[in-house]
Amino acid sequence: MSAPKTLDGWYVYHDFRKVRYDLWKGMSQPAANALLRAYAGFAESQYEIQQDRKGSFGQFVIAGNKADILFLYMRPSLEELNEVKAAFAATPMADFTESTYSYISVVELGGYLAKPGVDIEQDEAIQARLKPAMPSHRHICFYPMNKRRIHPDNWYMLDEEERRKFLLAHGAIGRRYAGIVKQIICGSIGLDDWEWGVTLFADDPLQFKKLVHEMRFDESSARFAEFGPFYVGHQVDTDELWRWLMRSRASFTHERGAGIHDRDRTMGQGN
Ligand code: VOV
């Protein structure tokens, strides 16, 4: 029995963080403004890297209390992800948030997608899937998963034909969500605690429930899948993240609606 080939793309770092409200609320308003301005510079540089197609970046507010914020980065190499980690650590945002969960993986596609005789590097459609720009959908859902290895439901002992049959049925369900849910499946065997990181994007979060629910009844998930913790949230730009963070400070009530640039202006006037 031989392992199926995979096509591997950008390395992915999910960085889930919680706000240290004890520090954040104790900070003076000018200090909070300066902090967020410094962070905005970092976020801007991340979006520029994405613009240059040298990586991807997204900011998300996470629902529930497993985390408050997710920073999601993709880069061509693990070293570059570690550079991003250092660059983030240098921002004051790192001082008043703490990591609650992280996940390292690499964008993965089935090896059968490689057409014989065609250089993967020249196949634009495959390159776009291996090195994806951050989808612009409003919502995100992330969870890690394994394929079971307990007899008789041992995914890794199935022959190729059986696995293909299961994945065909899985793909058929997924395709019914074309244009509604976008998936980025990342392999993490040898990289992190689970075998895959599943990241889904949709404008309506209810579609995550509908898709995952449908897949639970499909044999490839019903018999073989095991799941880790689920995270769900919505995508924000830096300005919206700023407003969300400011709302969590008691002093924000009289500043509701002020964005980074408004704040910069008022800061410049000596506020
Ligand atoms: C949003 C829709 C969607 C679509 C269209 C889709 C399609 C496909 C196709 C065609 C293929 C086959 C290999 C390849 O082409 O890469 C896959 C592969 C895979 N998937 Fe998937 N999947 C989706 C969605 C989707 C979800 C929601 C999940 C989580 C499962 C659940 O129960 O919660 C998932 C998982 C996976 C995994 C872990 C793999 C790798 C399995 C392996 O052993 O290698 N996936 N997937």
UniProtKB/TrEMBL annotation:
Top-level lineage group: Bacteria
Gene3D superfamilies per record: Apc35880, domain 1
Protein keywords: Heme, Heme biosynthesis, Iron, Metal-binding, Oxidoreductase
SUPFAM superfamilies, sorted: Dimeric alpha+beta barrel
EC number(s) on file: 1.3.98.5
GO biological process, one term: heme B biosynthetic process
Binding site for Fe-coproporphyrin III: R129, Y143, P144, M145, N146, K147, H170, Q183, S221
Recorded catalytic activity of this chain's protein: harderoheme III + H2O2 + H(+) = heme b + CO2 + 2 H2O; Fe-coproporphyrin III + 2 H2O2 + 2 H(+) = heme b + 2 CO2 + 4 H2O; Fe-coproporphyrin III + H2O2 + H(+) = harderoheme III + CO2 + 2 H2O
Cofactor: Fe-coproporphyrin III
Active site (record annotation): Y143
GO molecular function, one term: metal ion binding
Associated pathway: Porphyrin-containing compound metabolism; protoheme biosynthesis
Note on cofactor: Fe-coproporphyrin III acts as both substrate and redox cofactor.
Function in brief: Involved in coproporphyrin-dependent heme b biosynthesis. Catalyzes the decarboxylation of Fe-coproporphyrin III (coproheme) to heme b (protoheme IX), the last step of the pathway. The reaction occurs in a stepwise manner with a three-propionate intermediate.
Family (UniProt): Belongs to the ChdC family. Type 1 subfamily.
PANTHER family registered for this protein in UniProt: COPROHEME DECARBOXYLASE, HEME-DEPENDENT PEROXIDASE YWFI-RELATED
HAMAP family (UniProt xref): Coproheme_decarbox_1
Protein's recorded name: Coproheme decarboxylase
Provenance organism: Alicyclobacillus sacchari
Gene name tied to this protein: chdC
